[in-house]
Write a structure and sequence with these properties.
- Helices cover 24% and strands 31% of the residues.
- By secondary structure, the protein is an alpha+beta fold.
- The strands form three sheets. Strands 3-10-8-5 form a four-stranded antiparallel β-sheet, covered by helices on one side. A four-stranded antiparallel β-sheet has the order 7-6-4-9, with no helix packed on it. The chain has a two-stranded antiparallel ribbon with strand order 1-2.
- The longest helix is centred in the N-terminal third of the chain and has 14 residues, at 15-28.
- The radius of gyration is 26 Å and the shape is elongated.
- The termini are far apart.
- The model is unreliable at 1-6, 60-65 and 67-72 (pLDDT under 50).
Length: 157
């Protein structure tokens, strides 16, 4: 086959082979399979969904009463008028790079627009900035912590 015919030739898809490969994926619980025959290669893949995992608290932790005040503190932080909440799901970073000084600490004075922290979402670093000037009264997250949408991150007073 010459180079010009290789460019113009369309790949012939063997739908029976693809169906057989898909059935093999199901039968063997694989997530992908690839078959190569000369210069022809077919890859069949599927996305496996993780089964929900349910955790139950150990009996001693379930009986512990101090967990209730912590829940109340988080709820009150979410309702605080100076709460800066996450605009996305991701991982929070308190500094620009590992080993660098954090952007803020409790007691830090900030101006509107100052970077408070970074949220990584889908390999993109998103700076979270102060909506107004004030003092960082409380830092509610730790470095490299996974966070949820609308989770309170910082309280500025």
């Amino acid at each position: 086959m010459t180079d010009s015919t290789a460019k113009g030739a369309a790949m012939k898809v063997d739908s029976d082979l693809i169906r057989q490969l898909a059935e093999l994926l199901d039968a063997s619980n694989l997530s992908e399979i690839e078959v190569e025959d000369g210069d022809r290669r077919i890859r069949v893949a599927r996305t496996l969904s993780a089964a929900p995992v349910h955790f139950s608290a150990p009996p001693a932790a379930a009986a512990a009463a101090p967990a209730a005040p912590a829940a109340v503190a988080v709820e009150s932080a979410a309702d605080h008028p100076g709460a800066v909440k996450s605009p996305m799901v991701g991982t929070v970073y308190l500094s620009a790079e590992p080993g660098a000084a954090p952007f803020i600490a409790e007691g830090t004075q900030v101006q509107a627009g100052d970077t408070l922290l970074i949220v990584e979402a889908m390999k993109v670093m998103n700076p979270i900035t102060a909506p107004r000037a004030g003092r960082v009264a409380q830092l509610l997250v730790e470095n490299a912590q996974p966070i949820e949408f609308d989770q309170p991150l910082v309280i500025i007073e």
